[in-house]
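Per reviewer request, we include the raw input and output of the structure prediction for the construct analysed in the revised manuscript.
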Amino acid sequence: MIIQTTDKHDSKRSNLWPCIYHANGVAKDGPIFQKMKNIESRIKYQEQSPKQHGITIFTWSIPEETTLLEECFERMGIRDSIVIIPISKPFNWLDKIKKLHEYMPYVNTPYIMALDATDVIVSTDVRGKLWPNLLEVFEGLNCNMLWNAEKNSWPRDTQAMQLKSELNKMVTFDNKMGDYLDTEYRHLNSGAFIGKTDYVKGFYERLWKKTEPYYGRGVDEMLFGGDQGFVRMMQAEEFPSMLIDYECRIFQTLNQVKEEEINIYEK
């Protein structure tokens, strides 16, 4: 399966072929993602292991559960290539940051990728070349870390008074960049990224230092939008080494995306 962007209002986003699809927010139950899941469930082939191309892939999930991402990788014949970081209920949303930071010293590949487990599909029409093609696009973007971008700005508020100024700063930064690049995909979504390992290790060190004081309150998603507010808080100071996928060249989020904005092909 592959999708083609067909945004008539944004020529830069027309005729692109992202390969990681993230049904963030309410899009998880929407018609686009349901169609994608139906197509993907019929596809089975052998993809190369990401480790062959220097990529370590992480996700977070409850060990006893089989997730959509695992099923996707199973159909590609590479299920064992995912490193599953165990989490348990009740979720501490900041464990996504804390635990990935703790895993960083053990990564010895040149690249790191992390994907949410329950609402992400990875697919391509050029089978056997998914990872080298993805890396070619990533390297062409001239950054050290790339997050998926979305139309929706989340979080929109925070329960921590000391974070309200940070919220205002990140919205201002997003809109400045989005207006300059003329794109609706202007907000960082923390459900998927790829990066160069040395940079990612340093980034998570810096991120955890800012997040740790709030860890005890992390079970409340509304504190700062789970982990997402804390990651977004870092964006302006990490720019341009850390970018978001403004044109959806690798990652395609689906929240607030209309069916006419993409074509879905079963191949």
